């Protein structure tokens, strides 16, 4: 697109949409455009600032009162209009104002600040959202990712992709902690993250571009077009971050030169007209990984490429003041392509799709009582899992995955009571899977308002996660790794006691929980029988013994424009070792304490700054202890107007101390620890509101 300023025309490359249909992309042209727009616009806006007076609170960055935020309806916990204080779930909200104040570059950075949530990695995959210490195995399939309430996850391996939405297109992030299967079904095992997109009641256009050290850049455009009852959101974004080169030693002692990098191109369109909504999202990502085993011989250092397309149609109509119908159709297609050899000559292509239908009926039985009755149907399909030669295209193996399908049929019932002082909800989800028969999950919550600023919640929840197609059917030609058709679904039972306080300047949430985890699926080593043949010393998926965990989650927010805006999130987790196998158990690798502190201050009407600190206590690696670690980010923002255009210059120093945060390599246990991917980075971003 083109932006004109004071007669000077500047070309802005928001995104090359055609890249989303291929598995390769070129960065050189993008870099040139980004650098050009940054230098040119900064020079022009600097001149303008000298010739015109600064205006008070031009972009109204922190104008939303905290009390108003507390009364904002939360989408992730209900179809209704529940606020944080009255919500029948435990929900943490990162507002748009907080996203801007702390200059988060990605959703991962923002979500990592939430108490009880960690975005981790293993040797196979980056950005694995993890809730309350229940670690993901190979893929992130225990925390459900939603876009405006639409589930998004890989049909074969179960993980969602946080990078498929640019943070510049996000209105707020809602994090539901604890079991969420009654509301959302499988994969909402330990929580759900709902990414709420920006909306508007008038035409808006925002562009951004930025550069950072280590060859990083970003660029994008976000537009809301409004005409009568029609509202269209269009967003296109390009993002790249690249870390310094470092050497790691693989499990076979081979040395690999690594560069932790991420490329993320995404396009999102959301159209709303009366009762109709259509959501389209396409994502092309490329990231570093340590190989199918952490070794140069198994592809370490070569690219892992992800392509995904999401389509969702929803009809939402209140026919009377007593009856509301919500119906939807969902198609989610994903393709991954990863390296399996040192020279990148052998790769695997993994394609899968999910197709589903949902129908929900909401009945207002009285001014206080609401009932929800619904049905869901989803089918997961593994289209291919082929290993092939990149040059000759000769197929080596399908890994027993091609054509595999599993379907689920679900019935949902919930009844809610909302009174002036007392609220509650009881819900049931019954799911039929041909492999396992029927499953029943329940949820019950009680909310008591001590007064209009204080509430207490008592919540009981159950959750389940059905095994992924990968965990069920995968089988290598060498007969060294096996899926297991006899796996049982994972289950969780959780009790939560929550106290919340919200007044004009202050929000406080203290939560105590106790959870029991049953049938957790993990890749183990030992003897395994497959189709009547016994194999010795192989890897296979199995259910481990039941274990428990308890914890404390504290969230504190203070917002006063005259003094300071600040937040503090603290988390403590304890879990037993009842799932122990060969000195390996889930909570061996979990950091028991974490603390995040953020402070923001408007220094003048046009200048503000913020500081963000993330602190981890020590934890166990596979072989030895990992010491406590800390991250520190410093941000400065300059805001002003150029005629009718609002501009914000954002300067950040991420990880000021250049601490390489290290986390246990808990999935394969080939190494003691691996770097999380943090490194010192200087970043400049320009946001333009037209």
Structural class: mainly beta
What is the radius of gyration?
25 Å
Bin the helical content. Answer: under 10%
Low-confidence stretches: 1-64
Biggest sheet: strands, sense, closure? 22 strands, antiparallel, barrel
Total beta strand runs = 39
Distance between the termini: 13 Å
Overall, the morphology is globular
Oligomer: single chain
Mean pLDDT: 88
The helix tally amounts to 6
Our estimate of the beta-strand percent is over 45%
Explain this structure.
This protein has a 22-stranded antiparallel barrel. A 5-stranded mixed β-sheet has the order 3-8-9-6-7. The protein is globular and about 65 Å long. The two termini are 13 Å apart. It has 690 residues and is mainly beta. It is 7% helix and 55% strand. It is built from 6 helices and 39 strands.
Short structural description:
The protein is mainly beta and 690 residues long.
Topology:
Layout: E1 2-5, E2 8-11, H1 28-51, H2 66-70, E3 90-95, H3 96-101, H4 107-111, E4 117-120, E5 128-131, E6 143-147, E7 150-151, E8 170-177, H5 181-184, E9 191-197, E10 204-212, E11 216-227, E12 230-249, E13 255-273, E14 276-287, E15 304-318, E16 323-339, E17 346-364, E18 369-389, E19 395-397, E20 405-418, E21 422-433, E22 437-451, E23 454-465, H6 469-473, E24 481-482, E25 490-502, E26 506-518, E27 521-530, E28 533-543, E29 547-560, E30 564-575, E31 593-602, E32 607-616, E33 619-620, E34 625-626, E35 629-642, E36 645-654, E37 662-664, E38 673-675, E39 681-689
Parallel strand pairs: 6-9, 24-28
Antiparallel strand pairs: 1-2, 3-8, 4-5, 6-7, 8-9, 10-11, 10-39, 11-12, 12-13, 13-14, 14-15, 15-16, 16-17, 17-18, 18-19, 18-20, 20-21, 21-22, 22-23, 23-25, 25-26, 26-29, 27-28, 29-30, 30-31, 31-32, 32-35, 33-34, 35-36, 36-39, 37-38
